[in-house]
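As the work plan foresaw, the team has encoded backbone shapes as discrete tokens. One protein thus recorded appears below exactly as we store it.

:::
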Amino acid sequence: MCWAGRMMLGTFSILLVLVHAAAACDFGPFPYRATGIVCRMTKPAALLLNKETAQVIQAAFRNAKFPNITGERSMRLLGRVAYGLTNIQVNDLSIERSEVELKEDNAIHIAIKNVTALFKGTLTYGYSGAWFLQLFHSVDFEIESSIDLQLSIELTCQKDQVVPDASDCYLPFHKLTLHLQGDKQPGWLKQLFTDFISFTLKLVLKREVCKEINAVSQTLTNFILDLAANFVRDKDIIVDISLASDPVIEASYIESHHKGLVLYRNNSSVLTDSVFSPSLLTESRMLYFWLSEHSLSSLAAAAFLDGRLVLNLTGGKLQELFEMEDTEVQRKAVQMVFQGTSYNDSVAKVWSLTQPQIALQPEGTVVRSLVALEVSILPTGEEPLVALYMEKEIMVTIQATYVEKKLILQPVDSSAEIKVFKCTADPSGKDPSIQSFLQNMILVAGIPEVTSSIGSALTSLMNSKGLDLFDIINPEIIIRKGYVIVQLDFGFPSHLLLNFLEKSL
């Protein structure tokens, strides 16, 4: 779910990015079609995103480079009439409404209703005839227009990624009225040039606006794909979100299947099967992510190999850990372990000795690993002294929630078996009270502290990728045997799209 936020950027380009490809892709034989991650976006999400389409259409109109329009025609009595429209600009653009449909022909249909725009520029014209001297005039003009815009965005695939084709673009005109400067020109002249240029102008507007819409959609898509790639990459750990199979487009949702393989220093995990079924996801929420146990296990393995499963505790955190209860046994254990040294002069290091084994069950995520705890005393000007070293076989069941833009990991069941115990103050290890206290400390305070720290670290990582910029509504993390489902509604941060359009166009 870490990359969900970044893939929400854009308007109709988001629809394309979430699908990520078309039937033109060659996915190869099994097992290369095994799926580790599935994304489903439902019609309510598409409708929400479509509200932002107006921003893209307005940007396309504003950014379109309208060429000069020239033409000439022979008129009886007037002779040959030539004209040119230059410096064409768009003003006062508005859009009445926008509609979107998801079609099973692998396309997204967007209908923009009643786009009203005022085009301004300069009209230069000249004519000559038997009764007239050659005359040249230049006047400012305004063109009032009312247009519908119909887009059928086809999905094509290159290198397992989406390439949107918005070239199927149609602009029916309801109104195209030419006003010359101050409407002071004779009515016959205005009618003459309206007849001359309206057909040509319609062709130019269609060509340039549709070309710019296609360009904007390509730019947005490339930007989003780059963000998505960055979101699933952190140093040497990369999640492969290229497509595993053809997307599914239904009238009520778009669903894409991704490989979900974890790459670490050019080594890749291998997935040969998938337990995903479309029936596992519903259509009641806007956005769904299905993640396989294999993908999460591979991420944990990569984090272990990269040396990330290490936690250092000092000062107040260390004190909280060892003073979870005020008993004689606790005070004796603290005295023996720290030998009177201040917590500020000590450090506890917790790390995983073996690759964590992860199993997804209805009760939560079950994690098994061999974990070490080392407490060192740091005498001034001397080498650190290892006062305590323990190795424990840990099994913990964790439930995850996402609240107020924070990932919270809560252990609901745990066990710890001490495998190795070395204490400088008790070299023989014959004081059972110390081991009993430490065992209780690990279960009651140690494991919650470690899981809380991991949750905070993951939250910071996701927020560094921009997830906290999005309005995620009522997210649910549902764990089942072999997979996890993240389902949510969301609000679109319009300012992100506006900032992107202002900077990029």
Summary: The chain has two domains: 43-230, 236-494. The two ends are 30 Å apart (CA to CA). Residues 1-24 have pLDDT under 50 and may be disordered. The first strand starts at residue 37 and ends at 42.
